[in-house]
TrEMBL record:
Residues 1-20 are annotated as: Disordered. Coiled coil: none annotated. It comes from the Bacteria. Signal peptide: none annotated. SUPFAM superfamilies: GroES-like, NAD(P)-binding Rossmann-fold domains. Keywords: NADP, Oxidoreductase. This is NAD(P)H-quinone oxidoreductase. The keyword Oxidoreductase applies. Residues 18-331 form the Enoyl reductase (ER) domain.
């Protein structure tokens, strides 16, 4: 690697799972790119719910992945593996990674990188890949969303919720969200939601039915699971699709299978992190062709919450767990 790349870097680690305060900076060797990998000097790293769950000890990295938290980064390519495209060197990119984002340097597959346009800040770029890849795959590929359909999204002001709202609107969907306060409902409407329901004061099942004149939503993007599943199905239309991407409300659900049959519902779900590199490369390619132009021309910009210095990863996690954030929390890795 080049003379300008140091042997060591600052990264965020922890000795044992626990509360946010277990996170602390440590010094680690700078990794070396192999095969189709690139080494990125990290400018910013996105903070996501899976990072929190990993820190709590419930979501270990897949085999071969970095134990350092962080699933999305922005920065500059400073070294390339022998099989990576040489033209990526010195380019500003954001990337989906399987771990290692909370650090000054991070490896990424060249095929999982997206070029950052001049109009986009590094902080914004780091706030995009994880939610964009997740929403694109689950809403449009697994959920078969098509123009004119209604999408129900829980957690409307989360990173996933804001991304699903903006992408849904860009591709001609009617978007309904649920949020936990009137302030968050207002923020969700500002992002583009056609209807934002305060789930603490209103029954979202009844409200979705009313809003759709009794038809129901065509797709629900479910991050809650647990006892929400049957309620989601109750406000899904005939032939509706229920797509689960997280189980924040519990892993088990009891559902009425007779109702499911009569309404011809489809239940599916996925996690992205452990999927093979080749799958993610195909997904990145599709996103590059169909969705990325909307980010390049500024049609979609990520909703940003707060930027913390890398060393304050613990405070960033505490903010996410408090649940008051609107949009994306990111870390800034000054080198």
């Amino acid at each position: 690697m080049g003379d300008t790349i140091p042997d060591e870097m600052t990264a965020i680690g922890y000795d044992a799972p626990g509360k946010p305060e277990v996170l602390r900076p440590e010094r680690l060797p700078v990794p070396r790119p192999e095969g189709g990998q690139v080494l990125i000097a990290v400018s910013h790293a996105g903070v996501n719910r899976p990072d929190v769950i990993q820190r709590q000890g419930f979501y270990p990295p897949p085999p071969g992945a970095s134990p350092i938290p962080g699933l999305e980064i922005s920065g500059t390519v400073v070294a390339i593996g022998p099989d990576a495209p040489p033209e990526l060197l010195n380019q500003p990119v954001c990337a989906l990674v399987t771990g290692g984002g909370y650090a000054q340097y991070c490896l990424a597959q060249a095929s999982h990188c997206l070029h950052i346009p001049e109009s986009m800040s590094m902080a914004e770029a780091a706030a995009i890949p994880e939610t964009l890849f997740t929403v694109w795959h689950n809403v449009f590929e697994r959920g078969w969303a098509s123009e004119g359909e209604t999408l129900l999204v829980h957690g409307g002001t989360s990173g996933i919720g804001t991304m699903a709202t903006m992408l849904g609107k860009a591709f001609g969907l009617t978007v309904v969200t649920t949020c936990g306060s009137e302030e968050k409902c207002a923020a969700s409407r500002e992002v583009g939601a056609d209807l934002a329901i305060n789930y603490k004061t209103r029954d979202f099942v009844e409200h979705v039915r009313q809003f759709t004149d009794g038809k129901g939503a065509d797709i629900v993007l479910d991050m809650v699971s647990g006892d929400y599943v049957q309620r989601n199905l109750d406000c899904l239309s005939d032939d509706g699709r229920h797509v689960t991407i997280a189980v924040l409300g519990g892993m088990s659900a009891q559902i009425n299978m007779a109702k499911l049959m009569s309404k011809r519902h489809t239940l599916t779900g996925s996690t992205l992190r452990a999927r093979p590199d080749a799958f993610k490369a195909l997904l990145a390619d599709e996103i590059h062709n169909h969705a990325w132009p909307l980010f390049e021309d500024g049609t979609i910009r990520p909703v940003m919450d707060e930027v913390f210095p890398l060393e304050q990863a613990a405070q960033a996690h505490a903010r996410m767990e408090a649940g008051d954030h609107i949009g994306k929390i990111v870390l800034e890795a000054e080198i």
